[in-house]
Amino acid sequence: MESTLPAVAEELLREIKKAFQETSQGRDLAFFRLKFVFGPSAVPALDLVDQRSVTRVKSPSGRTTYQVLGSSGKLYTCFGSCHFCTCPAFGFSVLQKSESLLCKHILAVYLSRALGACQELSVSEEQFSSILLAEEDDDA
Fold first, then answer.
1. Residues 93-124 pLDDT 10s
2. What is the C-alpha separation between 97 and 72, in angstroms, rounded?
């Protein structure tokens, strides 16, 4: 996991990965802890994981980012390496108000990675750049 998350959250995601790889005994407790730590983002993030809404996008040079198809049908770009999402909730709840550690999209990325549930998409360098620049175009 990335070092941008507090240690408790990182440990919880490691526990979830371990619980998923083993039997179902520890899953209920791990998911209860998930809801306790991440609050209202937990259930919607799990829904996104269940719907296979998280795609890891990789370029030939090895650069990666994640795209999450939100419940509204909009595609958001998430950067796991720097803990950032392009959704309005991230800007408001995480950056401005500091009410949450992360939005449901970033949590869905972390959970998908931990559970091995990411879809994979390889794109050209030009396509990768377009994905990154598309967010700037939306803001303009």
1. 888 887 777 889 999 998 898 888 899 999 99
2. 22
What tokens appear for 81 in the block?
A: 């390496």
Give the C-alpha separation, 56 to 41, whole Å. 20
pLDDT given at position 50:
92
pLDDT tens digits along 60-70: 999 999 999 99
Q: Structural domain boundaries of the chain?
A: 7-131
Pairing type for strands 54-58 and 75-79 reads unpaired
What is the spatial distance between Cα 80 and Cα 58, in angstroms, rounded to a whole number?
13
At how many degrees (to 10) do helices 7-21 and 27-38 cross? 160
In 3D space, the residue among 91, 57, 51 whose CA is nearest the CA of residue 72 turns out to be 51
- Are residues 133 and 98 in contact, defined by beta-carbon separation less than 8 angstroms? no
